[in-house]
Design brief:
47% of the residues lie in helices and 15% in strands. It is an alpha/beta fold and 245 residues long. The N and C termini lie far apart (34 Å).
Length: 245
Amino acid sequence: MKLEGSVIFITGAAKRVGRVIALTLAARGADLIIHYHHSRTEALELKKEIKIKYGRRVDLLQADLASLPAIRRLAQSAWKIRGKIDVLINNASTFYPTPLGTVTEKQWADLFDVNARAPFFLSESIGLKMKKRGKGKIINIADWAALRPYTTYIPYCASKAALIAITHGMAKTLAPQVNVNAILPGPVMWPEDLGSKIKKSVLKKTPLRRAGRAEDVANTVRFLIEEGDFMTGSLIHVDGGRSIL
């Protein structure tokens, strides 16, 4: 699929990895629909930057992905803006520690609502429209830890494992018109509150002995859009080799 002139819808794109994905695709000529929740200022800044640097159209949509009615409205609004979506990127994610013995029902619901339920219902609504239109791609940003769970992040890892199941199920159901794949990042863009001791421990267990960059994920997204036409249901590890240990 050519990125030039395509319409890409990215959730959680105002900051961090989502922002770099948006800039990477805009640089290749894509027009963007950017979802944000609280980060309106950052979303407006990103829109301005893309307009100045690349001259591409950017539409902004706000929604709380923990709300199913909001998810349904978001899917409808995103398609209506341009009358099509060529690529849906389910990037938005919630991530925080939940040690055993401290997990609350609210935390469980929050992690699964944003990390699994939202991608499912967005992919269902938009994916069926893509299938009817005859083409489209869906890319889910999962996590290598979905397959090798962190001991203090079990609900988060379980929600990302659900996203992998969603990827496989959607890939089967929406084929052959729609490609559905998932990227499984490893240590990319550390959480701001992560201590240096934990970082050193993570890198020690990473074969490449370094953290990844947001650009590593963004370039994998770009590859799946431009070159991955014969790929569906694939899990692509961008984790510095962590999954092989």
